[in-house]
Amino acid sequence: MPTYSISELAREFDVTPRTIRFYEDQGLLSPHRAGAGGRRRVYSQRDRTRLKLTLRGKRLGLSLSEVRDLVDMYESPSDTEAQLTRFLAVLARHRGTLEQQLADLQETLAEIGAHESRARAMLEQLRHA
Question: Could you give the C-alpha distances from 21 to 24, 33, 52, 70, in angstroms and in order?
C-alpha cells in the first residue's frame, strides 16, 4: 500500500504542510509516525483520500464539522438510509446558504449598476454643460 510524506501531499494538492497539520489536529487525518522519535509523518492512502475529500468540501464552502461528517460517512457503508438522509440534509442546508448569498449578490450588483448609471449620467451632464 502506498504511503506519502507531508511534502508529497502538500505538492500534490497545492496546500501547505501547515494546512495538512491543521487537518490532522482537527482529526481529519491520522498519519503514522516514523523515524527517530516518531517525528516524521507517514500518510496512508486513506489519509490521502480524506485530504482530497476535505479540500473538496472546503471548496464547496462546507464547515469543517460538515466536512468531517461527510468524510466519515464516506468511509462507512454508504447505502444506509440514515447516512444518506444526513448527507442530503447537509447539502440542503448548504444549498440554502448559497442561494441566499447568490440573491444578496444579485441585489448588490443591481444596486451597483444603478449607481453606475446615475454617475455616468451626471458625468455626461457635466461634460455637456
Answer: 5, 13, 14, 20
